[in-house]
Design a protein that fits this description.
By secondary structure, this protein is mainly alpha-helical. It has one domain. Helix content is about 80%, strand content about 0%. It starts with a helix and ends in a 14-residue tail after the last helix.
């Protein structure tokens, strides 16, 4: 119940704002509101069960497999298994599932497979980095350089989708698993930087989907490049109930297929390497079941009733005098979205553990809230004005990479990890639909203007967290300087880290 209550506290502020808008300046049909509220209930329960399941299954699976891999000291095996795990955990990511069903001009299976390959390849790169100690900054500069070079020649219809794919990939399923896997593999190194190098995995894994989807655009052609926005409608409560009941079997099948590769890999490791006790094995199996049920409830609630209201609400507010209210409104919703992202809590805990409390989780969360609020405001501005996303992404990433030379390395890793973590379920479900609805009402190009909201949410934390690191770094330097006079002899071990 604790996880469900936590989920409720996260989701209800957004729901309250939406309901207030619907009862005042943007009235909507009663059937749509009822479908939305049923979807909200399913999302709350689904997120709660999913969070509990991911905590008791995905995290220990990732950590134990990572530790088992290091014991083999077989680099090719580590890289191959990392690729397989990256692919498997990605296709089961709920955020990606939602985006794949939303994108109109790319087959959902093709998009899922493309993103999975990208994450798998870069998870292998991450493992190689942890084992070798290669500096994260140079990898980021090199790969983002390649990304923007490809972007200059890519199909415009794939540009925003590519960056959105990088954002949604690292969600509540992927983040705990990847972070735990990284910590497990880092144990093979004995130096002090090993655990800190476990940060940066999320940021590198976010790069993979951007590259692979951009490359997909050069080869994949579809005639269905137009977007037709239409919201569901029901005549009565019986139709609403029937819509939910029809959807559940489909998602039961989809999620079973999505989770199957992870389960198979885990049991192979259990047979040949892990040899967990019956108690531990049962605990993980129960966690997998919670994860499965949570995913089914979450996706059913999102796709049947929750996201449809976001679509209609965005379209209603975009017409008339309320049009320019959408920028501050989007910023307000963005502020609360961070509280609804379970992966943020996972990252906060790891940051405090690795830094021994030197980097407060509250400061990280505040910085992320500001970043996401600004990202949502900019995204809505793009819809209203038609500005290209590249006017924001190119200077944003350039400044973020430049800041990496002036802030402590750990803040750079945390910043790029936070970018992937911040863009989670609420962004991919409600906010994307909200922006798409507004774009449709205004006659905007949905593919180029509305898509990209997740990309903006993924980029802004890169700047805010590194600014935070710069401030904390200067503060710590000042504290050290004031603690010792010019005549003092300072031993290195006396200086706080």
């Amino acid at each position: 119940m604790e996880k469900i209550a936590e989920s409720a506290r996260s989701v209800l502020p957004i729901v309250a704002i939406v309901v207030l808008l619907c009862l005042t300046i943007a009235p909507i049909p009663t059937d749509l509101m009822l479908g939305f509220l049923i979807g909200t209930l399913m999302i709350i329960v689904g997120m709660g069960l999913f969070s509990l399941g991911a905590e008791t299954s995905m995290t220990p699976i990732g950590s134990r497999i990572g530790t088992a891999l290091t014991k083999t000291k077989n680099l090719p095996l580590i890289l191959i298994i990392s690729f397989m795990l990256g692919f498997a955990v990605t296709v089961a990511e709920p955020d990606l599932q939602v985006l794949a069903e939303t994108v109109p001009h790319i087959n959902s299976f093709v998009l899922l497979a493309t993103v999975g390959v990208g994450v798998g390849f870069f998870l292998a790169v991450c493992m190689l980095r942890i084992l070798t100690g290669v500096h994260l900054r140079w990898l980021l500069i090199a790969f983002y350089g390649i990304i923007f070079l490809l972007a200059a020649f890519s199909d415009a219809d794939f540009l925003s989708i590519a960056f959105d794919s990088g954002g949604v990939t690292t969600g509540p399923m992927t983040v705990p698993f990847i972070l735990a896997l990284g910590v497990g593999v880092s144990h093979i190194r004995s130096d002090k930087k090993a655990e800190a190098d476990s940060f940066g995995l999320v940021s590198l894994c976010s790069i993979g989907p951007i590259l692979t989807v951009l490359l997909l655009g050069f080869f994949y052609k579809s005639d269905n490049a137009s977007v037709e926005i239409s919201a569901v409608s029901w005549q009565n409560t019986a139709e609403i109930g029937s819509a939910y009941l029809r959807a559940i079997p489909d998602y039961l099948k989809e999620m079973a297929l999505a989770l199957a590769p992870i389960v198979v890999i885990f049991f192979l490791f259990q047979i040949f390497s892990l040899h967990l006790t019956r108690r531990n094995l049962a605990k993980i199996c129960i966690g997998i079941l919670y994860t499965y049920v949570g995913l089914v409830l979450f996706l059913t609630g999102v796709n049947v009733g929750f996201s449809s209201l976001g679509l209609v609400l965005g379209a209603e507010l975009a017409v008339g005098w309320t049009k320019w209210l959408m920028i501050p409104l989007a910023m307000l919703l963005g502020w609360f979205i961070i509280s609804a992202e379970p992966a943020v809590t996972v990252l906060e805990k790891q940051i405090e553990e690795v830094s021994a409390g030197a980097i407060p989780g509250k400061a990280i969360k505040l910085s992320l809230s500001v970043a996401v609020a600004l990202a949502m405001g900019i995204s809505m501005l793009r819809v209203l004005t038609g500005l290209s996303i590249m006017w924001f992404l190119i200077p944003g990433y350039a400044i973020a990479l430049l800041l990496s030379f002036f802030v402590p390395d750990i803040y750079t890793a945390i910043a790029f990890d936070s970018g992937g973590v911040a863009s989670g379920p609420m962004t991919a479900t409600f906010m994307l639909q909200f922006v798409m609805g507004a774009g449709s009402a205004l006659g905007s190009n949905i593919l180029s203007d509305a898509f990209g909201v997740v990309a903006m949410v993924a980029m802004m934390p890169l700047l805010s967290i590194q600014v935070l690191g710069f401030v904390f770094g200067r503060k710590k330097t000042a504290e050290i300087s004031s603690a010792y006079s010019d005549e003092d002899i300072v031993e290195l071990w006396e200086v706080p880290v």
